[in-house]
């Protein structure tokens, strides 16, 4: 027995004797009660995805401990150490776990073919290949290399992009490089509304 | 925000106008409560509705939506007339003494230089008079008739209590009370903060709403001080970051400019955006523009950016028009767009004039929707009865729906309203095959690169050059990108400490100069989690990183007088003591300069001063002026009947016909959020859908009685653009206002209605709204448009 196991044993002993003292000890021997979920949960720091107060979150996830088992987020609460929210969350933030686990999450790349009335699941590779084909054909046909005065302008106006204001900065920068290297001018964010 | 959320606790007066923090930013509003409880602060709320913020206010004043400028110019008139102005501050740190050109004029609602045909201004005369050296002329005695102070005084003279009340509908008593409370903070020991949100931006003169408030704050000496400032409560969790990343049609990251057709080459471009000082001895920080730009091009194009190809300047697209969302949707509507990406936005619900957006999307050849949720945008081709009355067989758009991760499933930095760059960590894998947006775009980028390498094509150079040189180019890790944003010394390979190290010779690369310092050789500064607040003033320098330079209060040089002595010793941020600068925050100036040399706190301006006169910065004038909403409930402008609406507003061809008149559509409609819902996201969350299961329209009791509408009745609301069926909520929160001799009724419409979520099927408010927007930003006028109402049969 090492030091840590010794302390653990002592702590258990103290709890069981206290429970026994209160007269709560069952007469018959029973299996140990299930441990509190939060005790074994993994705690991850994050920030609320809704408004821009930037409230700190603690997200709790667990899994079955099996090999290849996925972590699953089952509880989200305010981060009491975050100075801006000091542990508080608003009604939206307090319900965030329902956003993560919404039944309306998209799960797979899909396509809706022209004129049809259904989604069809496709692979990422097929999605990339088909979208890239559309983009290249359009860009090759419609990129404006020079304006009427002969100035190099290299703009592509027949495609555009409404960009996200929820993804992290790093995604935002990748989005910017993606768009401008292709010649897109018509990019916008929800910042406008 | 010039300041930040916690700093609100230092205020003596909080003014919430153009926002509703208690419901839309509830936890941020906690700092207002803190100020009221522990700093004896007062709260003033000015809003068309008696909101929950209003319910907690010491004083509430109603106003008609779209009349904030008249309201605030009247406050300015009152302060000047009653001499409740912080004259020390105004003299030291504003352009009040600057002399304006002789040809500048304002007559009957129009400034000099207006061209009726194009609906825009030639702004030549909106400038200072310059001396032989190119410096602005000033008159410290304020006697010159054309010094900014005298022009301002003259400009606001018209806005007396009765005139303001006649326009805004605010009763004179209420108005006078608000004027008094705001003006009371002109002393050095009292500070007011203004909190605003979309209630100010969603107007055809949104930028001027905010500017008028900034002028009030300058007059009061409330900018750059603890508990003061100009505080935008931004909507989305990382809309600040998205803006910093330049995800707008005319921007590059870090508020650099995407070049336009006039910037014919690199030298012209740099000359156009690198200002020369307008007064002697200025910091004029934008003089560093070439360093920021060249370093950014090095991060864009890597080794492909060289001095001989002007750092890849020609590869950047140039704009000839402002291709914002509204214009691009209009182009789509007219069949001029083939492909569109919608990333993390439920565009068809969120954007104005839904019927037009629907038609526009059906004109696309392909649409790519990247979203964690199944939005109505991705399914615009699906019939949903009256909510989306289409025939899928008629719609030839190929639609791709790509599943993305959400916040809990990814790592990275988001920026809050107070410019805090907070790092967050991944808690679990996403469902199914969802991927982060950055990975999806990387997958596409590589596929496109391969196609160009294989097939050739038009202008392949930028596609080949764009720098994806991350540790794993197929899966760029956010650490790599965050380091790229901070910037690197290409000679030594070391992370930069700050943007002061940037160079314009190609030896530094930096994605976004204002983020420099966020990931240095000392590691990820955004991940810091020391919440100590040594001063007790809410500055937590060890928590995350605030851009720029970990500075928590912008313009903080203005918290001291010219000699470096704090105006209010209880609010010391920085001070000149024992021959050097010291303080609780990073100084927003060159701290190696002595007080007199650094006495120009607005260092991004070439004259270093806060501007009452905005020069050529805004589309509709260097001073704000009251213009009616594009759809006005009174059909005239009591100040100048010939110029009713914002004369510089953009009306695309065909749009005038989509605007209604007050005869046909007599009621003002304003849209807003309820506390239970975040637009069209939380409608997919069970708990939120239970707590607020449907949408409704708020009607005042007088209007409801006139129309025979009871609480819970179905009503039809129509605008010139469309109509929706919705349930009525009869309320005392809205009251008719007497405006220009008539009663004006306002109806309120929450904007969370959707037909494909967990809430009850309902219409989006944007069937009704107009795409006409602010003359500068093109933000649609969601807050003040005209509708009609009638009782209806239910669904």
- How many β-strand stretches of chain A? 9
Task: Determine the mean pLDDT of chain A.
Answer: 87
Which strands sit side by side, in order, in the main sheet of chain A?
Answer: 1-2-3
Structural class designation of chain B? alpha/beta
Main beta sheet of chain B: 6 strands, mixed
Would you tell me the overall average pLDDT of chain B? 97
User: How many angstroms separate the termini of chain A?
Assistant: 64 Å
Which fold name corresponds to the CATH topology of the domain at 6-235 in chain B?
Dimethylsulfoxide Reductase, domain 2
Unreliable sequence segments of chain B: none
The CATH architecture of the largest domain in chain A would be Single Sheet
Give me the count of strands of chain B.
31
The Cα radius of gyration of chain B reads: 26 Å
**Helix content range of chain A:** 25-40%
Major interchain interface with per-chain residue totals: A-B, 117 and 170 residues
CATH class of the domain at 6-235 in chain B: Alpha Beta
Spatial order of the strands in the main sheet of chain B?
25-27-26-31-24-30
Unreliable spans of chain A are 9-16
Note down, in words, how this protein is organized:
- The complex is a heterodimer of chains A (193) and B (795).
- In chain A, the strands form 4 sheets. In chain A, strands 1-2-3 form a 3-stranded antiparallel beta sheet. A two-stranded antiparallel sheet of chain A has the order 4-5.
- Chain A has helices spanning 3-21, 37-40, 91-94, 96-100, 124-142, 169-182, and strands spanning 42-47, 56-62, 72-78, 110-112, 120-121, 144-146, 152-155, 159-163, 187-189.
- Chain A starts with a helix and ends with a strand.
- Chain A folds into 3 domains: 3-100, ADC-like domains (N-terminal domain of TfIIb, Single Sheet), CATH 2.20.25.90; 106-140, no CATH class; 143-193, no CATH class.
- In chain A, helix 6 links the parallel strand 8 (159-163) and strand 9 (187-189).
- Chain A is of the alpha+beta class.
- By secondary structure, chain B is of the alpha/beta class.
- Among the domains of chain B are: 6-235, Dimethylsulfoxide Reductase, domain 2; 325-409 and 433-455, Rossmann fold, CATH 3.40.50; 656-791, Beta Barrel (Barwin-like endoglucanases).
- Chain B contains 21 helices and 31 strands.
- In chain B, the strands form 11 sheets. Chain B has a 6-stranded mixed beta sheet. In chain B, strands 3-2-1-8-9 form a 5-stranded parallel beta sheet, with helices on both faces.
- The longest helix of chain B has 19 residues, at 437-455.
- Chains A and B meet through strand 1, strand 2, strand 3, helix 3 and helix 4 of A and helix 2, helix 11, helix 14, strand 12 and strand 13 of B.
